[in-house]
Specification:
Blueprint lengths: L1 H16 L7 H29 L8 H24 L4 H10 L1 H18 L3 H7 L1 H8 L1 H18 L5 H24 L7 H10 L1
Helix pairs in contact: 1-2, 2-3, 2-8, 2-9, 3-5, 4-5, 5-8, 6-7, 8-9, 9-10
The structure holds protoporphyrin IX containing FE.
Length: 203
């Protein structure tokens, strides 16, 4: 999994070195790193549903690594924007973030991801206590929603929503699975034999 998650980085470096980023390399880098952040986020959110449904307990080990890869690609995305789009001009960057709502939304997602990355080590988990740690790390669901809003808002300017709907459907299914699992495990769906039956296949 670690090697697989490095492939996008190798592809990006390859495209930079061999000048394959097209007419606007800065924009291509920002967009490609944004795409990979979102894809890594989808993979991360898929770990628990796949682990539980297919009873592959070993997959739990991938969660932290995938989470850190989400943060890694998000950092590359922010770096490409700050460096190639804005020339590392801090005043321009802060004005741009405040002026363009879709960037503010992306930036909020990045701040939340930073909190999750900083609290990902075993030492911090022990210091915080499992319950508090779990509560904080549920913020990843908010990050997924902010990421979709960021993507939607950016594409709204171009009136091009096809990919936005595809990612919305994927993330909707992965979050919907969790909601259904919660409702069934807390016995809130006892009145619906159909959903109980669906749950017996899924969880
Ligand atoms: C959770 C974190 C983030 C995710 C998942 C994310 C994801 C994305 C995605 C999927 C795109 C569109 C790529 C495409 O069109 O193919 C994008 C574009 C963009 N994002 Fe982010 N982003 C995040 C955070 C940020 C941050 C922190 C910034 C800057 C402060 C930022 C600035 C931009 C910009 C400038 C664009 C491109 C706009 C354009 O080319 O017109 N994003 N992002």
């Amino acid at each position: 999994m670690f090697a697989a998650m490095l492939v996008p980085l190798i592809m990006l470096v390859w495209a930079v070195v061999f000048d394959q980023l097209g007419a606007n390399p800065a924009q291509a880098l920002v967009r490609r790193t944004g795409d990979w952040t979102l894809r890594a986020l989808c993979l991360l959110l898929a770990v628990t549903p796949v682990r539980v449904t297919l009873q592959l307990t070993a997959l739990a080990r991938w969660r932290r690594m995938l989470g850190l890869f989400v943060y890694f690609y998000a950092s590359l995305h922010l770096l490409s924007y700050g460096w190639f789009d804005m020339g590392f001009e801090l005043t321009d960057i802060t004005h741009d973030i405040a002026k363009r709502p879709f960037i503010l939304v992306g930036f909020t997602g990045f701040i939340l991801l930073s909190a999750l990355a900083l609290t990902s080590s075993n030492r911090v988990v022990r210091a915080m206590g499992g319950k508090n740690w779990q509560r904080l790390h549920r913020t990843v669901y908010a990050v997924a929603e902010l990421a979709l809003l960021h993507f939607f808002w950016m594409r709204a300017g171009k009136n091009d929503f096809t990919q936005v709907w595809i990612y919305t459907a994927i993330i909707g299914l992965l979050l919907g699975w969790r909601i259904l699992r919660y409702l069934i495990s807390s016995n809130k769906l006892a009145a619906s034999p159909f959903l109980q039956r669906v749950g017996s296949y899924l969880f």
